[in-house]
Structures are given as C-alpha cells and as structure tokens.
Fold these 2 entries.
Entry 1:
Amino acid sequence: MSVLVYTENWDGRFKKLSYELVSYASGIAGMTGGSVTALSIGNVGRDELSTLGSYGATNVLSAETVPSGLDNQLYTQVIAAAMEKTGAKVLVMANNNSGKAIAPRLSVRLKAGLASGVTALPESVDPVIVQKKVFSGKAYAKVKILSDSAILTLSQNSFEIRETGGSAAIEAFDPGVDASVAKTNIRDVQKQEGKLLLTDAELVVSGGRGMKSPDNWGPLEELAGILGAATACSRPVSDEGWRPHEEHTGQTGKIIAPNLYMAFGISGAIQHLAGVSASKCIVAVNTDKDAPIFEAADYGIVGDAHKVLPELIAEIKAARAQ
Amino acid sequence: MRILVCISNVPDTTTRVKFSSDNTSVDNSGVQWIINPWDELALTRAMELKEDSSNAISTVTVATVGPATADPTLRKALAIGADDAIRVESETGDAYQVATQLAAVCKSGDFDVVLCGIESSDYNGSAVGGMLSEILDIPSVSAVSGLKAEGEEVIISRDIDGGREEVSVPLPFVAIVQKGIAKEPRIAAMRGIMMARKKPLQVVPAVESETLTGYLEFALPQAKAPCKMVDADHVKELVGLLQNEAKVL
Ligand SMILES: Cc1cc2nc3c(=O)[nH]c(=O)nc-3n(C[C@H](O)[C@H](O)[C@H](O)COP(=O)(O)OP(=O)(O)OC[C@H]3O[C@@H](n4cnc5c(N)ncnc54)[C@H](O)[C@@H]3O)c2cc1C
C-alpha cells in the first residue's frame, strides 16, 4: 500500500518531527510492502529534500511554486492532488497547528476517515485500525477507518525516528491548483526567531503557582539554560501573566511529550497532566507530599522549589564538570 | 453579521472515564455534562464582540448535534448570552457525521462567522471545524487565538510556531479557536439563567449522513510504576538517577 506523507518545512528546513513522520509512513508502507512518497510544499533546497530519503521516502514531490503562507484551502487542494497522483491510500501528517488545520478538510475532500493524534503504527492496514488517545490521555481507543483511504495525524515526539540509509528521487510537482483558491490575507507576522519551541524541546522545565511570584523564575530559567531545555508553566501562571501564554501546558494549552519534564510547584491537576503525561520521564518538586503530581511522576522530591532549584543547578553543573 | 458557535456537549474534564463491560463503548452514567472548554471560550468571545456596539453583530446562535440530553448544555449557552439555540436531533456519530449535520445548520441559517473549538475534550479529534468548512467550501482559519471586528471585516490572530499572524479571510468563514480567544469563560448570571428559559431552542431533524470512522474498543492507560522519592537533602541523588537510570541528562 503506498503512503503519502506531508512534510511541512520551517523556512526551508525540516526538523525532527519531519523525520518522525517519514519514519512512521515508512513503518506503515513496510507492513504491506508499499512505498513512501513525501510531499513538500514551498521552497526547499534539494539537499534538504534529499534528507527525507534517509528515513524511508523513495520519492519526494516538491511543490515549490506554491506560496509558503498557510492557506487551508490551497494546501488541501495541493495535498489532494498529490494523493491522486501517487494513488496513495494512506496520508500521514503531523498533529500540529497546520495538520489540524488541513487534515479535516482533506478528510472531507478525499472521503478518507481521519484518526488524529496517533502515537503508534496501526495494528492492521486493511482496514486501517489504529490506537489513539481519547479523553485527553485518560483512555485509549482503537479506531477503525471505514473508508477506502485513511488519514493519520501523528503526535509529535511519539514515534522513534528510524534511519534507513536510503535515498529518494526528487521530482518537481505542479499540483495544477489555481492560486486564486487561497483566500487568506496575511496582514502581519510576529515571530520570535531562534527560540526553542516548547513542542520541539527534548527537555522541559516547568513552574506552577507554587513558584509564588514571577520574580522567582530566575533559577528556573537558569536550570533551563544549562540543560538546553524549554520553559513551560501551568495555566494559572500564564493566566496571571507571570509567564507568556506560549508556555501554558495542559489540556487547554500545549500538549507536549519531551524526554524529561520537570515540574516545580505544580499540583498536577488532571487538566495539567493531560498536556504532559506523555513525557518519557517526569520529575516533580512539591512541598505537599500528597500532591497528585507525584502519582504521574517518575522521580519526586518533597521540598521547597526555591531551595531545591539552586541545589539542582549546582549538582548538575558539578556532574557536568566531571 | 451573524455568528454561529458550535457547541460540543462533553463530560466534565475531571470525570473518571468508564467503559461498558465489553469495553466497546464509554459508560456515561453519572457524568456531569459541560460545554466543551474551547467552545465556551468561543461563545464568550462571540458575546464580547456582540456587546461592543461598534460591531455590527446582530445575533449569536449556538448549535449542537445530539439527543435531548444535550439540552441543558444548550440552555447554559443561552444563559451565558446566546440569542437562540439549535439542536440537531441525532445520536453523535464520528466527526464527519457531526460536521455534515452542522453544515446543514449553516446552510439554513445564513451565518457569516462560524466558531468551533480546536477539539472536544472527549474524543480529541480536532476535526469538526475543518470538516465543516470543507463541506461548505468556505475558508477556515485554525489555531485562532484572537478575533476582532473592523467594520465589515473580521481580523483574526492565529498562532504559528514561535509566534502569531494577523490574517483576514472573506465572509463567511469558519474560525477554529483555542486558548487566548477569550481570557476566561463567562459564567451565567442569575438573570441570564432566568432569561434562557424563554429563549428559542429549536430542534431540527438530522439530514442523511455517514460515518468514516468507528471506535472498536477502549482501554485505560497502563498503571505506571510508583514515583521514586528522593530526599530533599540529597538532590545529588536525583541528578544521578536522571543520568544513569532514566538516561535523560
Ligand atoms: C476546563 C479546564 C481546563 C484546564 N486546563 C488547564 C491546562 O491546560 N493546564 C493547567 O495547568 N491547568 C489547567 N486547568 C487548571 C487546573 O485545574 C489547575 O487549577 C491548575 O493546573 C493548577 O495549577 P498549579 O499546579 O500551578 O497551581 P496549584 O494547584 O495552586 O498548585 C500549586 C502547587 O505548588 C505547591 N507548592 C506551593 N509552594 C511550593 C514551594 N515553595 N515549593 C514547591 N511546591 C510548592 C503546592 O503544594 C501545590 O501543589 C484547567 C481547568 C479547567 C476547569
């Protein structure tokens, strides 16, 4: 069964997520002996495109003339055209902002059932049966796709990238879609360059209301700095304006799955855990030994974050110096 | 300008999830039902926009797809301030089935701005808003964290990786909203609750629709190993465990 994977680019570059997607697509294709075609939209250099081959794409379609500002209708039609060209029965995309924007439109256009936020390979591909999280991580469900084709959106940091050492044939792709389909007028862009995105981070240091005041974030930022971690926070912290909204993690904020999530002064409410419970390792520091965060954590310290943070920084520095 | 807010009727976010004895369906006995948190924020923003008299917004309608048990949730939305409510009489199928029903509501109602939450807190599909816009063949903007009216135009803020964009699209359109769209969900006041009883709640029959996906089985996550506690006076031990046992540092 051939698989199409849409690999978004960020200013002409791919990132780990892109290779997770190709690896996942390649895993599905491998279940049936099919091949993987990657679709890139916008201007991406040949060298960058060819990196997709190392993770299992045998072909890369580069729709380089399509403008890079996201227009949901235009992108939907471009991806639909690539599905038609390749005859793929499965489409793999990321469960991120753009995936959430486009995948549902494609589901209607292609009459293809959508399973969003999958974290593992399907248990069967004909029909597609795949597990996904529901109730914000409180349960898992097995979803069966009832249509001929399927769209699967993959959660970030949930699928191990696998290098295959292969190479891909790169082909310019003209989707034949009229640019006037695009109706989004982008009036202004505000972007912080060079900042590690919370959703991309492998390590995350997070603070809750137990940090007591926005003035106490210094040590937390220092710890993040020496670890190369991103900073996050609980909802009340961002609601109070102690920290920027992009840092709010949880059910109603960002949902992340880093290798390490360190929670300082966070009680571990169910809505907070919904955004962080997929982390591979959770460390909690809380003065209350009964705080629910300890039920979700792998390692815990009952103690004052203001005392533990400086010691942790010192110990990590000491360990690094060895 | 007419605004439609699509409402998903979901279990309270603190609900303990239970399944039928054969694990093929969710057991909703004893569940407290609420307006899906993002839909509640969308409705809050819609009310703020309508109340600002410099905006030409005539009505805010709420709609849901579901059986009569969803009516109290719609009444709550009316109490928050919506002018009228529509319930499509139907069991809820998958996102495609729900979007098909909502598309019929949109076609009959002549709405200019349709607001949907980024996901519903039960099945986390992130799908209905996008599907609805494609069925109607109108623009959609996703990851919306701000909406304001400027004359006949609606200015939309959408989150992008590492920042935000200000965009506009021609009416009618679907905005799929998330955190930031309103600061805090509005709570119904006594007066609103009284008034809601008299506001129109129209029940309309379902149109023909199909489903593209189905749930076969549910399971709870595996219980995790208990947390390893480290003494607050031995922070060094934690660093050792993270380096050598968890191998994350
Ligand atoms: C619909 C809905 C959606 C929600 N979505 C989210 C969401 O997305 N994300 C989110 O985070 N929340 C969300 N919430 C809120 C959630 O229910 C909790 O209120 C919130 O997570 C609590 O934040 P907190 O842990 O920082 O604060 P608190 O619950 O106040 O906890 C502070 C913790 O700090 C500890 N503490 C105090 N002093 C110290 C110290 N000196 N050192 C160490 N520890 C200390 C305390 O023991 C306590 O456990 C949502 C709620 C609802 C109803």
Entry 2:
Amino acid sequence: MKKIQITDVIFYGVGGQGVLTAAEVMGWAALLNGHHVKKTEVHGMAQRGGSVESFIRFGKQVYSPLPVDSHVDFLVCLHPEEHVRFKDNLKPRGVDLIKYLEKAREAVADKKQFTNTFMLGVLSHYLSIPESCWLTAMEKVFHRSIEENKAFFAQGRKMGGSL
Amino acid sequence: MSLHRKDENLFLFSGNEALAQGAYESGLQFAAGYPGTPSTEIIEYLSHLKEVDCQWSVNEKVAFEVALAAAIGGKRSLYASKHVGLNVAMDSLMTSSYVGVNAGFVIVSCDDPGMPSSQNEQDSRCFAKVAKIPLLEPSSPSEAKEFVKKAFEISEQFDIPVMVRMTTRICHTKENVALGLRTEIPVRPFGVNAQKYVMVPRNAYQRHINLEERLVKLKAWAEKTSLNKIEISDKKIGFIANSVVYFYAKESYPEASFLKLGMSFPFPENKVKDFCRKVKKVFVLEELEPFLEEHIRALGVKNVQFKDPSFRVGELRPEDILSIVKGKKKEHKKTISRPPSLCLGCPHRFVFDLLKKLNVVVAGDIGCYTLGFSPPYESLHTCLCMGSGITFFEGLSRSIDKKVVGVIGDSTFVHSGITGLINAAYNKTKGTILILDNGTTAMTGGQSHPATGTTVKGELTKQLSLEAIAQAAGADTVDVIDPAKHQEFEELLRRRIEENNLSVIIVRRPCILLIKSQKKQ
Ligand code: SF4
C-alpha cells in the first residue's frame, strides 16, 4: 500500500483569538474541495484563555486525526508568545506563517478579531484549494461581518508568498 | 459512504454531532443528560430537533433513570454524559441490565484520556463490563454515527441497554459526515410486567438468570459481527486495536494486519484467538486501562505483546505506537502550554480576591471557579467531584481548627449540592457556604439548568429559587449579594463567618460570556 498524500496544518494560539474558527473555515474549504478532512479541537477548561490548538489533516483519505509523526506542512500561529510550542514540528519543506503575523496585525489594526481571517488568506495562497471554496467556507462559518472577513481574507491572500 | 465527493449533504461534524445525528436518524424520541466536557454537544445538537423530546436533567442519575424509563415506556431513548457523570448514575446503571428495555436505550459515555477537562481519567469500558451491558467503541465521527444505529438495534434485539463509549479525540474531531434520512419508529406498547420491571429480590434473581442467558447470546453475536473486523495483510505483524488508536496504528503501519474491535464486551474470544493464529507477532493497542489486555491474557495466547503499564496514564498519541511496539516506557513530557485562567471581568475574581484576603480554608467544587486554586488567588484548597464543595466544607469543619468556607456554583449546587446542605444542617454543622450564582453552567459553554428558568430548548419553565431551597434545606441565614460591591460583600462575609450559624450566601453576578451571548441575540 502506498502512503497516501495528506496535508497537515496546525492552527494555534490562545483561547479567544479565533483559532478554532480559522480551523473550521480551513476544514470546510478542504471539504468543499472534495477532500476527506479530519480536524481536532479543544473544548471546556482548556479554552479559558489557555493555549489552544487545532490540527487539520486533509487528502483523499485520512485515518488519524493527529499527524503520525507530529510534524506538519503549515504552522499558523496567532500569538507570538505561543509560537515556540510547535516551531520544531515543521516538516523539512513545510512553511511557517509566523513571518506574516506582524503584517496581519498591522493590516487589521484595532480590528484584532480579523487577524485569523487575514492569516487564513495567507495560508490559502499556499494551498491548491480554489478561492470559491474558501469564500463558501467563510459564509458557512462566520455569522457576522462576512464582507469584512472576505476583505481581510483577500488582503492576506495577496500578501501570501511575499515574505 | 464515499468520502471523496462534493455533496450538498456533506457536513463537517464532530463525533458528538455525528453520533447525535445517527441517533436522530435511528428514530430517537427522547434524550437526557447533564453537561460535561467532552460530551455536551450531543444533547445540544438533539435539542434543536423538533422530533426529539430532550432535556438537561438535574444530574446524571436523574437523566439516566428518566431516559431508561422512557425506553421502557416504548420510545427509543438516549443518555449522554462524560465518564465521571456516569458515576453519578452508577446505581441506576447497575440494575438496568436486569430490567432491560422495551424500545432501544443507548448510554453514551465520553471518556477524557489525558484529562484536558476532567478530574480523573477513568475508563468507561470497565463500567460496561461490571454492569453487564454490551459495549460499542467507534473510532471516528462517521463511525459514531453508524455505531449508534447498531446500538439501538442490539438494544432491542437483546432487550438490554447498550453503551457507546467515546473519547475526547473522537467527540471533538470533525470530519466529513453525510446526513441520512430519519426512520420513524412507532412507539412500542408498554405491557405491565412486574417480574421484569419490579426489582424485588425474587424477581431480580430470575432477571439475573435471564441476563446471563442474554449475555451468552450477545457473546455469540460479538464473534460474528462486522463491528469486530479482521483485516489480513502482512502476516508477520498485526495489531488488535480499538477506538481512535486503531487509526493511529493503521496510518503508522499501513502494511500490517489488523483486528479492529468495535464491540469489546462481551469479548469476542474466538475472533481474537483466530487472529493470533493467523499473524506471527501481535501487539495490543488501547488507551487507558488494560481492558482488552486482561481479556487476551486470560486466553493464554503466546505471540502477543502489550503496552508498558506507564502508558495507562494519559492520551495515546500516534507517536506512542512505535514506543509500544519497541516495548518502551512512556516518557511523561512536561508541556509548556499556558494554563487556563478566569476571564477578564469574571465575577469569580471578586470572590477569590476576598477569600485570599480573609485567609480561610476553602472547600471548592467543579466549575470555572476551581481555577481559584491557581495564582494569583491560590485560595481554593480542595476539589474532588461534583457536590464536594459542601460535603468537604462539612468534613473539614469537623476536623480542623480554622474557619472553613464552602464554595459551589449554581449548576453544581442543583446537581449535587442540595443533599450536602441538608446533611450539614441536619448534623448541626456551623459555617458559611457560598453559592456562586453566575446564572449558567459556564465551564461547559453556558447551558441552562433548573435555577435559570429555561429548558435546553430555550423555553421558559419553572425556575428553582436558590434562596428558598437553601432556606428549606436548613440554612440559618440566606443572603444574596453582588460580589462587585466589594465592601458590602466583605462586611457580610466577615460577619457570617464569625457567627455560630450555618449560613448560605448566594453570590449573584452573571458570567461575562453569558452577558456577551445575550447581547449578540
Ligand atoms: S466563562 Fe464565565 S464563569 Fe467562566 S471564567 Fe469566564 S466569566 Fe467566569
């Protein structure tokens, strides 16, 4: 049996930053693109301002909800102080999006709640999921400010690959 | 189900949502539970479906009995809680296999390996065995949906409650799940049958004989069912695995042979022996207790290797599979993640600021306020289980020579604090108990309970008065105070602590997240 090609992403940060919401959009985008998706979450005590992470894996068929050797293709960290937690878990050719976090913070200014959407935009640049899937995914996940979310997503998508 | 397709009917569902949807499609008509991570979303999902009569119960014992009786009454019915919740329903669980069901009854117990949100990591599988009920273990959200349907069929075919055991990693993993149509199941008539439903000794003895006969039939069924699946590939190495661990091994060793156990009680001995005959070296993979291990050891098969006992602690992760195969011990790594803390503006902050200042011994309980144990407060000194804020207050008061204050949340008080308060009053205990009334079950995401005056479906209902019940239970004084009024609160608490009375202070201020969610609506 040949190893099945799977893309592994981890979203992480601190409870309340929209880590789980960003992961949810990513999950839907992959699903809408025809992938099998497995995505892990944290609930309960862990959410009260503590560290939060969500793994997403997608491909033709995904068995394990966690990456088998704990290494991922993309690190999407929303909090600079949390970055260290998974910085050594990147695959050799993986991409660490921490370099975009400062740009994201500048772009959203005092609208901090859109940092996650901007970073999703950056991530989308690196993945071969069509833009239409991302837009539909956002419509499914965000209940408010959909247009603003799409605008910050677009900004992030343009920024992707520039650093 | 083909996963690789674009389908309008396809959803990204958590294990809990998928299980609830599966129960719904099976014609589920009644559901009850008490919130608890990682199980909460099962009842929440069902509460949105108009065909399902659904409730948050006062506690798990109540939920279990109401749901079992609904099944005996003829409606397909489901109980859901976290692992430690099932402890509260243990008395009911233990005799439920004797009386059996009428329409199907499914018990969902969600274990929490690694304890991201629990006080222990007990293994519900042991309960299924002790209570003598069949045990199904899905490995993924989509399996949770399929297995719960099977569970209803088994329950009706063998006249027995069936446990579906989940774990956090399945409850809170999301994957593609296709929605199906609901099958309406007619309500089964309830026939008076005292021999079956009245558990006095003579009847119970007959029912125990009958139960053992049902278990023999169930064992034969477990040997044949495709829930226990042999996949022969490389015959040099094989795994016997259950739950999500099966998928970790499947991805790490795609060439190996597998016996995937989806129904591990009654234990399918012959299938296990058969697998061990076909494969040269077999490894047993399971999280937590050596449940499969004990069964397999009893078979006397020689070519099997088990995990080191150190792996009974914590979650198994994919990278652990290799260590188990190599016969290594678990390395308990220190995590560097930041600990949870009370939200900014949380009403509990005022309480623990004051308790710290008063330098009293505090008997705590389960809820966000348990975080009062940690810096900067460090002023909550015990927490065992639901309700122990009051019983520990009493026991500690009786043995130590310092002022003791009991602390318990509103939902927790209703769940299992009331009996403790009656006991304290009855046995002449003196001292002060704080009921931290933030108007919701906050830690699990804000669920309603009897003192909120709303049901799980958001309908208005009778509202339990905490003041009146504390009074009726025997408190000498009952006060209500807003903790944000620092000075008044401090004066009141100092005064009550000094009195030679049993006093209850209801510390009332809503959870910040509750206020935010009400603003959104
Ligand atoms: S959820 Fe509510 S009760 Fe819990 S810490 Fe936050 S504000 Fe306090």
